[in-house]
Design a protein that fits this description.
Layout (H helix, E strand, L loop, with lengths): L4 E6 L4 E8 L3 E9 L1 H5 L6 H23 L8 E7 L3 H18 L3 E5 H12 L7 E6 L4 E8 L2 E7 L5 H11 L6 H9 L22 H13 L5 H26 L4 E5 L6 H14 L2 E3 L3 H4 L4 H14 L17
Parallel strand pairs: 1-4, 4-5, 6-9, 9-10
Antiparallel strand pairs: 1-2, 2-3, 6-7, 7-8
Helix pairs in contact: 2-3, 4-11, 5-6, 5-7, 6-8, 7-8, 8-9
Bound molecules: 5'-O-[(R)-(carboxyoxy)(hydroxy)phosphoryl]adenosine (KG4) and zinc ion.
């Protein structure tokens, strides 16, 4: 691999991010400018507002990534951007910026799958993780159990049939009037609550698919009927149900496919209880576990660079005609 200094850009949702990563693992800079404050007043991401904010932020964020990395653009070997899945207007900002820079600076360009990027956040800090591996990818838009036998080769074992895990966190938090995004707020509240309410564990022993919509409704119904229950106990009990389902299925999958280890990725992988439960489950089963740093779980561009580096070494560059694809799937 001769191309080893990658500038990556991530704008699939509400974070404008750029990073410079060497050899797919040495993070020279990782800048994330969050739009959370802009969207919080609406209780969720407003796509049109997000794309306008990306337009304002993209150039300074890229400039900061180059300065923090201590490099000139002439040092770069590859320019990458997330091309999907995500919000079309947001994706277009990152993809257009990356292609323009690639053209002007005469560098190759590669479009990256956001889900593949989340998977590769595991290899950023542990590049020698042994395969086969089961990865639990849990974010605001996706909940998937993926088997990886080889690099860049995936088998989706299961996924959510309705809400993603992060979406359930956000919707429950919204109903409880806790603010946006709900995941980190519920995570924090759950520290001081008691898991006394037995919320349902949907599809716990039914294969590898997930369903979180019914659990969300149970929480809402419970709160309606029992308005005096401390909010911390609701948060802890809800979180226990989510984590129980996620970890039970991930552990079972890892054992069934004879995986060497189990990893987690995506925004919900920043959850304290999930991180602890994954480590415990792996210890019990003698599996290697890997839990990326929190800053590499939520959307960031360092993971995009890691995936770009792998893809480029296998498939070469993308054409400059490559566009954004809001519905891009994980290649199986
Ligand atoms: O990966 P991500 O940053 O963006 C997507 O690709 O969706 O994930 C965002 C999701 C949100 O739903 C947010 O509430 C959730 O990740 N999240 C968490 C935590 N931090 C972020 N969920 C539970 N606990 C957390 N600590
Ligand atoms: Zn994401």
């Amino acid at each position: 691999m001769t191309q080893n200094l990658v500038l990556a850009i991530e704008t699939s949702c509400d974070e404008t991010a750029a990073a410079v990563v060497a050899d797919g693992k040495n993070v020279l800079s990782s800048v994330v400018s969050s739009q959370v404050d802009i969207h919080a007043r609406y209780g969720g991401v407003v796509p049109e507002v997000a794309s306008r904010a990306h337009v304002d932020l993209i150039a300074p964020v890229i400039a900061q990534a180059l300065v923090e990395a201590g490099i000139e653009h002439s040092d770069l070997d590859l320019i990458a951007a997330t091309r999907g899945p995500g919000l079309i207007g947001s994706l277009l900002v990152g993809v257009s910026a990356a292609k323009s820079l690639a053209l002007v600076w005469k560098k190759p360009f590669i479009g990256v799958n956001h889900l593949e990027a989340h998977l590769y956040s595991c290899f950023l800090e542990e590049p020698d993780l042994e395969l086969p591996l089961v990865v639990l990818l849990v974010s605001g838009g996706h909940t998937m159990l993926i088997a990886m036998d080889n690099h860049l080769s995936y088998k989706i074992l299961g996924q959510t049939l309705d809400d993603a895990a992060g979406e359930a966190y956000d919707k429950v938090a919204r109903y409880l009037g806790l603010g946006y995004p709900g995941g980190p707020i519920i995570d924090q509240l759950a520290v001081s609550g008691k898991p006394e309410i037995e919320f349902p564990r949907p599809m716990l022993h039914e294969g590898y698919n997930f369903s979180f919509s019914g659990l969300k409704t149970s929480v809402i119904n419970y709160v309606r009927k029992n308005p005096e229950t401390p909010i911390e106990d609701i948060a802890t009990s809800f979180q226990e149900a989510v984590v129980d389902v996620l970890v039970t299925k991930a552990k079972k999958a890892a054992i069934e496919i004879n995986a060497k280890g189990l990893c987690i990725g995506g925004g919900v992988a920043a959850n304290s209880r999930l991180r602890e439960a994954v480590l415990d489950a792996c210890l019990q089963e003698g599996l290697h576990s890997f839990v990326p740093s929190r800053s590499y779980c939520t959307d960031n561009a360092a993971m995009v660079a890691a995936a770009a580096w792998r893809r480029y070494s296998q498939d070469g560059p993308s054409s400059l005609y490559t566009g954004a694809d809001p519905n891009l799937r994980l290649p199986e």
